[in-house]
Amino acid sequence: MKQAPATGSNDDDRTTAVGLARYAFEYIEAALLVDEHDADVRPGNQISPVPAYFLALHGIELTLKSYLRHQGVPLRELRSKKYGHDVHACYRKSKELGLLHRFSEQPADVDGLRMLIDLNNDHGLRYIKTGSKQFPLWSLVAPLAVRLHQAVAPLVGCKTFTSAFGGYPPSL
Q: Which of 52, 57, 61, 157 is the most exposed place for a label (fewest CB within 10 A)?
């Protein structure tokens, strides 16, 4: 007998902050590996591969959703059009709920996130779109993704990265 898919509060119970943080860790880790591999294969390449940017952005999105779930935002709301895959809306709500007490936001973080979000308009990091694009330096994206995860993961009970980035203050 086939079991009905989980819905409602069961989904809410099963989609935890720690689970979202774990997935975020894996997406960010994959982004770092893709970038590292590309750097080995194409030394001097100025732009990281597009999949690395996509993986990093999705890891950032999941990190923010982990924080929001920890702060009591229901899964239904996170899946709604209000948030969905809108990283800017998730970041804004996370800041409203105190994220900046844990994450030391830098101007480079704001610039890198804005550029990633702009690149992903209309799924631009998943599907080819002609025209010029402005990619953030990986040296902005990687520290943002890792440091954000380092700020949220301990709060929700998840492992995180041990990396440190010169010029960036540690998470609070």
A: 157
